[in-house]
Amino acid sequence: MRKWALALLLALCALMMSGAIAEAGLEPDPTLAPPQALRTARIRAAGDLMVHKKQLQIAKQADGSYDFHPQYALIADALSNADYTIANLETTIGQYENRPYSGYPMFNTPESLLDAIKDAGVDFLTLANNHMLDRYFEGMIKTVDNVEARGFDFGGANRTPEEKEKPNIVEVNGIKIGFLCYTQMTNGMEDWCNRAVKEYGVNYLRKANLREEVAALREAGAEVVIAIPHWGEEYERKPQAYVVNWAQKMVAAGVDVVLGSHPHMAQPVCFVEAKAENGETRRGLVAYSLGNFIDNMLKRYTDSGLLLEFTLRERQDGAFDVTDVGCVPIYCWKQSDNIQAVSSLKYYDTPPEGMDDGTWRRMKDSCDELVSLLGEDVTMLAE
User: What single DSSP character describes residue 157?
Assistant: First the structure.
């Protein structure tokens, strides 16, 4: 019998059998059900969202309110071009007592900043950084309240001991992602705050018990673990040895992705291998520093950063791989009447309207610097 005829006969037999099963009122064998589609989630992570004095002045409206939307207008499409977007909020939110809003060195910003960030596409904010106590413990609590009220997921700052101990897990496309957010320091402000800061308020890196905390997330259902440490030295383009060591400890403890911040300059992105306690070799994606996303700093290399992209991809055994690592190179365009984060690759050949030639050259140079820093393993993305 020819192959096509045999195939047709088998198909007809299967059709007749299915009809017979239906007529008999029998349930089909569940072992014959088609396998479920494997889950994926495309994640993006931005660097430091800062608000210096000039950014406050630009945002202030004639009626006394503040509008930060224009500062994110040219990058909103890139921020929202993912299933889930993470960023470092490096300022306290909400006026403290009768003190005016302020930039460096004690950052405090109106609540309307959160509206602009939310509308631009950010979903998760890490609050574990060296400026989270710039308005003391009370200001930190107000910041958390405001972030929560706007519907953000968040981590790194805790209002109660129970909040600190609760596993921080969010679900993206059906994938449960656990978050660990830490900061190396809070600029000594912890010594001037309510002692609750040291007890439970801020997640300090030096107090981290990585194995226990990762295990707690896994036991609570986390299928992927992302750590967001605020670490390292400012204005450095390479991670210090102790930062590299911490990254290896995190991967060995079961962290899948590490998203670093604090140096205000972009640093390398790579996969790191480390031996777990059981002898297994684990592999994790590490971005030592995502650099600045938006700011008013003047040092070279502080005008650029990384909008990192990666995909969480489920395997047949239920574990997850971190794949498709890419990056939108970010340039902070400083103008007299606006400060904006832009994709330097998107505008590499044609500058955005209003950008002068000198700024355009610097933007292109910053893009080339990031391409050189990241190497061939990271795909550069226009948006």
Answer: B
* C-beta separation of 366 from 304 below 8 A: yes
d(CA 125, CA 68): 17
Instruction: Check: CB of residue 51 under 8 Å from CB of residue 105.
Output: no
pLDDT in tens, 315-339: 999 999 999 999 999 999 999 999 9
Q: Are 227 and 260 in contact (CB under 8 A)?
A: no
3-class secondary-structure state, position 335: coil
* Element (DSSP H or E) covering residue 293: strand 292-294
Q: What is the pLDDT of residues 85-130, one digit of tens each?
A: 999 999 999 999 999 999 999 999 999 999 999 999 999 999 999 9
Instruction: Give the strand pairing for 40-49 and 84-89.
Output: parallel
Pairwise CA distance, residues 197 & 203, whole Å? 9
Which residues have CB under 8 Å from 260's CB, separation 6+? 228, 229, 230, 231, 232, 239, 243, 247, 267, 286, 287, 288, 289, 290
Q: Give me the sign of the Cα torsion angle 283, 284, 289, 290.
A: positive
For the domain spanning 40-380, the CATH number is: 3.60.21.10
What span, in angstroms and rounded, lies between the C-alpha atoms of 103 and 101?
A: 7
Structure tokens at 13: 């037999």
Which candidate, 218, 166, 176, places its Cα nearest to that of 84?
A: 176
**Nearest of 75, 90, 177, 83 to residue 131 by alpha carbon:** 90
Residue 129 sits at φ, ψ, to 5 deg, of -155, 175
CA dihedral 195, 125, 311, 285 (to 10 degrees): -40
Query: Model pTM?
Result: 0.91
d(CA 85, CA 307): 9
Q: Are the beta carbons of 296 and 334 closer than 8 angstroms?
A: yes
Q: Which DSSP symbol is given to 28?
A: P
Nearest to 179 by CA among 145, 140, 242, 229: 229
Which pair of structure tokens corresponds to residue 266?
């972009």
